[in-house]
Amino acid sequence: MSDILSYIQNNPQETQRLLGVKYEQLEQLIKQAIALHTEKQQEIEAKKIRIINKGGGRKVKLSNEDQILLTLTYLRHLTTFQLLGIQFGVSESTANDTFNYWFPILQELLPSSLLEQVKKTLAIMR
């Protein structure tokens, strides 16, 4: 569990300030995003032809909740992936990969107005 997740759980009133959503909305968003993630993973697994048994490879460092928080933190603060990596205890490339995995999933769940605001900000910064 990341420091941010434990902080939010201990201080739910700060969630809006940190991530732009209320604590109850965050809980609901996490549940829906994980359900959508599980559904997509099951579809991928059904299409896969396995040569090596499932379960091999390196274990992920961040829980699904932490990965979603990383993505929401980026959307809210538009910080660098290097700082996100430091904040969540992963590498810069892992933070980038995590964001690029979860962003389309959250895009299906979040209101488009929030995402349009982020896109406009990114366009201005370039």
Low-pLDDT runs of 5+ residues are none
Helical content class: over 70%
User: How many E-type strands?
Assistant: 0
Anisotropy-based shape: globular
Helix-strand category: mainly alpha
In DSSP terms, counting alpha (H) and pi (I) runs of 4 or more, how many helices? Answer: 7
Cα-to-Cα separation, first versus last residue: 33 Å
Proportion of β residues? under 5%
Largest sheet: none
Average pLDDT works out at 86
Gyration radius over CA: 16 Å
Oligomer: single chain
How many structural units, i.e. domains?
A: 1
The SSE order reads HHHHHHH
Structure description:
By secondary structure, the protein is mainly α. It has one domain. 20% of the residues are buried. The model has no long low-confidence stretch (mean pLDDT 86).
